[in-house]
Amino acid sequence: MKDPDELLYFIALTLVPQIGSVHSRILLEHYGTASGIFRSKSSMLEKIPGIGSVRAKNICRFKDLKRAEKEISFIEKYRIQPLLFLQDEYPQRLKQCADPPIILFHKGNADLNAKKILSIVGTRKPTEYGKFLVEHYLDAWKNLDILIVSGLAYGIDQIAHRNALKHRLSTVGVLANGLDTIYPSSHTSLAREMILNGGLITEFLSDTQPDKQNFPRRNRIVAGISDAVLVIETDTKGGSMITADMAAGYNREIFSIPGRVHDKKSAGCNSLIRDNKARLSADPQDIIEFMNWDVETRVKQQYILPELNEDASVLFRLLQSHGAIHIDQFHSKSGLKRSSFHAALLNLELEGIVVQLPGNFYMLRRPL
Description:
- By secondary structure, this protein is of the alpha/beta class.
- It is built from 17 helices and twelve strands.
- Helix 1 packs across helix 6 (65-77) and helix 15 (310-322) packs across helix 17 (338-350).
- 44% of the residues lie in helices and 14% in strands.
- It has helices at 6-15, 21-31, 34-38, 42-45, 52-61, 65-77, 92-95, 128-140, 156-166, 188-196, 214-224, 239-249, 267-274, 284-291, 310-322, 327-334, 338-350, and strands spanning 81-84, 103-108, 117-122, 147-150, 171-174, 198-202, 228-232, 253-256, 279-280, 325-326, 354-357, 361-364.
- The chain folds into three domains: 6-108, 5' to 3' exonuclease, C-terminal subdomain (DNA polymerase, domain 1); 117-291, Rossmann fold (3-Layer(aba) Sandwich); 310-364, Winged helix-like DNA-binding domain superfamily/Winged helix DNA-binding domain (Arc Repressor Mutant, subunit A, Orthogonal Bundle), CATH 1.10.10.10.
């Protein structure tokens, strides 16, 4: 940073009334520096498309640099890395969005420009099925270098972060508040672990509380910083659907795991698939293959199978081709008599090859 005051003026720009992310980006692209914006005359500023006289005057009248200086003291004290929109270290995927934050505050060691970044979102009150899916997908990706992003919230977010850490995948939480606060507070220990293997990021200054209006702004970062978004269990309304809509607007890939038709917590996932807003994902590998992530170098996992009889082999091949399948459809497609079907299924369960999911769905356990 050539100008030592540049960070000061970047922070100051976020404090000017009626200057949001879009206006800030317009100004930065016009002037090339934040300090140049504040050194400009009102008559020059108001000529920039989208700025106008009111915003130009607000910039020229702004004098509260003490708040910006206070923030610099905070980030220096706690060794927080500020990422400015014009820097190469700034997340390049966010730069592609129309409304990126002009400054991010990062605590941790994550590479926010990693080759593969996936955001995972979902309900704050997942079912056992939803919990299993998060664990299953992240376990399948443990040999891949994927940065996992979520919002550090209850439910799917928390489970995604914890399982990423479990499998030594870097994981980043995007906050709707300043870095002086962890919300919810019960996730403080989780956040500390993430800082050691990933990190926390926010666009909000210290002393900013997690107010309701901050969460959509948080969600746009979750959507924009990644290559793709995976939605696991959500109703038709809520933060996960907002994130998915934002991701679609940013031309990100969206994957959704379907659930039972009458399950409210899968209604959002099902609607995303029905409306062609998301690609159906029935297996962790289909995301990896579609995104063409590490196809050549990934470790190919194989099932180490005991010798199966003919009936069990039929069921095994069905599960290989269908992923999760309801027991009624499973039996119908097998062509086996009911007694033979249940005997073969029990054999696969006892061998640890098949796992039962909530709602009488069955799928193969992860490869051994």
